[in-house]
């Protein structure tokens, strides 16, 4: 396998899997809204937000894949460009994960009638979200994947 193949095959397979999982998520969201029409409005908003954010993430990933395999075909320099990966992976991924984790912390609070574990979870979520945003900013500053090795910790 060529060196370019080692770089591009995971990108292609990951994008195809992302679309398949987005389809699965769409079905789950649809079934949720059919099965639980009387759920709290806040819960429905969380589900809608996560669904829309996942669509945005899939579109951003697809944009980079199309740029690599379409407009940038045959140009090895395009593989080094960050594209929208700074946003779609660390920032949007952290936001989506944070929403889910805060939701489950709230559920733990409701079920256990305790604040200690949910507060601990919320603190960890804040650090995770901050780290995701920081990583996105670092990726923007690097501008190219080959420059990641020169990034310095805060």
**Rg over CA atoms:** 19 Å
Helix content: over 70%
Q: Approximately how much beta-strand content do the residues carry?
A: under 5%
Low-confidence stretches: none
Structural class: mainly alpha
Largest sheet data = none
Based on Cα principal axes, name the global outline.
flat
Amino-to-carboxy terminus distance: 38 Å
- Please count the beta strands (DSSP E, at least 2 residues each): 0
Instruction: Look at the structure and give the mean pLDDT.
Output: 93
Q: Any idea how many domains?
A: 2
Number of helices: 4
Order of helices and strands: HHHH
Question: Which helices and strands, and how do they pair?
Answer:
Blueprint: H1 3-35, H2 41-71, H3 85-112, H4 116-142
Helix pairs in contact: 1-2, 2-3, 3-4
Q: Can you describe this structure in just a few lines?
A:
The protein is mostly helical.
Describe this structure in words.
With 154 residues, the protein is mainly alpha-helical. The chain folds into two domains: 81 residues; 73 residues. It is built from four helices and no strands. α1 runs antiparallel to α2, α2 runs antiparallel to α3 and α3 packs antiparallel against α4. The longest helix has 33 residues. The radius of gyration is 19 Å and the shape is flat.
What features would you highlight for this structure?
154 residues, mainly alpha, 4 helices, transmembrane helix, transmembrane
């Amino acid at each position: 396998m060529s060196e370019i193949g080692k770089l591009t095959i995971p990108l292609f397979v990951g994008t195809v899997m992302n679309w398949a999982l987005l389809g699965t998520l769409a079905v789950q969201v649809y079934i949720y809204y059919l099965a639980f029409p009387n759920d709290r409005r806040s819960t429905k908003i969380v589900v809608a937000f996560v669904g829309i954010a996942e669509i945005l993430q899939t579109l951003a990933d697809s944009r980079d894949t199309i740029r690599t395999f379409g407009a940038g075909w045959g140009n090895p320099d395009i593989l080094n460009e960050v594209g929208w990966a700074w946003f779609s992976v660390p920032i949007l991924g952290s936001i989506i994960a944070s929403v889910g984790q805060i939701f489950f912390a709230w559920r733990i609070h409701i079920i256990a009638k305790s604040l200690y574990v949910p507060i601990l979870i919320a603190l960890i979520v804040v650090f995770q979200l901050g780290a995701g945003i920081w990583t996105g900013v670092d990726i923007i500053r690097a501008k190219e994947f080959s420059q990641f090795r020169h990034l310095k910790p805060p």
